[in-house]
């Protein structure tokens, strides 16, 4: 089967896909990466650019002998996936962009990147992880998947948090959307606090061969909050 490469987002890790692996494995050989500075690779020096993360993922896949694959990116991982799709277009079969956008720093962001860095330095990585992970769920800390995701986020050190924020701050992929030619599925939770509809609409309309899936009553962590519907949409897309 064609491998499915999963790229997590800011303060994520490969373990966030644990509840999805068995089902996805029925449709593709799953390869879940841990970006430098995050998850089990929290000990590695972090990267401070989206393009740099994309290059790292490509090198990692070459090291595994993977030349052709499906690609799924969540949140910041969706930005990385867009960069990979531009670089590796002919090697990617199908592309999934989940809860992401084409602009690293959104207009009207709840706080500036510099303020986010300041808050992280003051409160520390562990508290930052719990605060940020709560925003990924409609029911915040009360959500069933919150503790698991917060634990993964807490593996990131302050240097990785700052590097990820800098990577998003300096990135925009809007000018490259028309260059993404692979069949693409854009997924979004209609209560996402991180990426508004305007960002999703941009991906859906600007990438030439794109389908859209909107998950109702769901925030940012679709795979953890509505896993059954998330998996049904992914499985249908891969099996077409």
TrEMBL record:
UniProt-listed Gene3D superfamilies: alpha/beta hydrolase
Annotated AB hydrolase-1 domain residues: 4-232
EC number in record: 3.7.1.9
Domain of life: Bacteria
Entry annotated with the keyword NAD: no
Pfam family, any one: Abhydrolase_6
Any one GO molecular function term: 2-hydroxymuconate-semialdehyde hydrolase activity
InterPro entries, per the entry: AB_hydrolase_1 (IPR000073), AB_hydrolase_fold (IPR029058), AB_hydrolase_sf (IPR050266)
Keyword line: Hydrolase
PANTHER family in UniProt: MONOACYLGLYCEROL LIPASE
Record protein name field: 2-hydroxymuconate semialdehyde hydrolase
């Amino acid at each position: 089967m064609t491998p499915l490469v999963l790229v997590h987002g800011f303060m994520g890790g490969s373990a966030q896909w644990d509840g999805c692996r068995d089902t996805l494995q029925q449709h593709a050989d799953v390869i879940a990466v841990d970006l430098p500075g995050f998850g089990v690779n929290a000990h590695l020096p972090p990267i401070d650019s989206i393009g740099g993360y994309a290059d790292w993922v490509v090198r990692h896949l070459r090291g595994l002998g993977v030349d052709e694959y499906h690609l799924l990116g969540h949140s910041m991982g969706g930005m990385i996936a867009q960069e990979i799709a531009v670089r590796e277009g002919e090697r990617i079969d199908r592309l999934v962009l989940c809860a992401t956008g084409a602009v690293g720093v959104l207009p009207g962001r709840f706080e500036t990147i510099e303020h986010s860095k300041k808050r992280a330095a003051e409160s520390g990585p562990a508290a930052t992880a719990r605060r940020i992970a709560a925003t990924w769920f409609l029911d915040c800390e009360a959500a069933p998947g919150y503790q698991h995701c917060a634990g993964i986020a807490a593996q990131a050190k302050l240097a990785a948090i700052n590097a990820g924020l800098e990577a998003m701050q300096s990135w925009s992929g809007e000018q490259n959307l028309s260059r993404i030619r692979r069949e693409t599925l854009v997924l979004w939770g209609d209560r996402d606090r991180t990426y508004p509809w305007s960002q999703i609409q941009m991906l859906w309309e600007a990438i030439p061969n794109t389908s859209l899936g909107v998950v109702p009553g769901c925030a940012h962590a679709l795979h953890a909050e509505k896993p059954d519907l998330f998996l049904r949409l992914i499985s249908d897309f891969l099996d077409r």
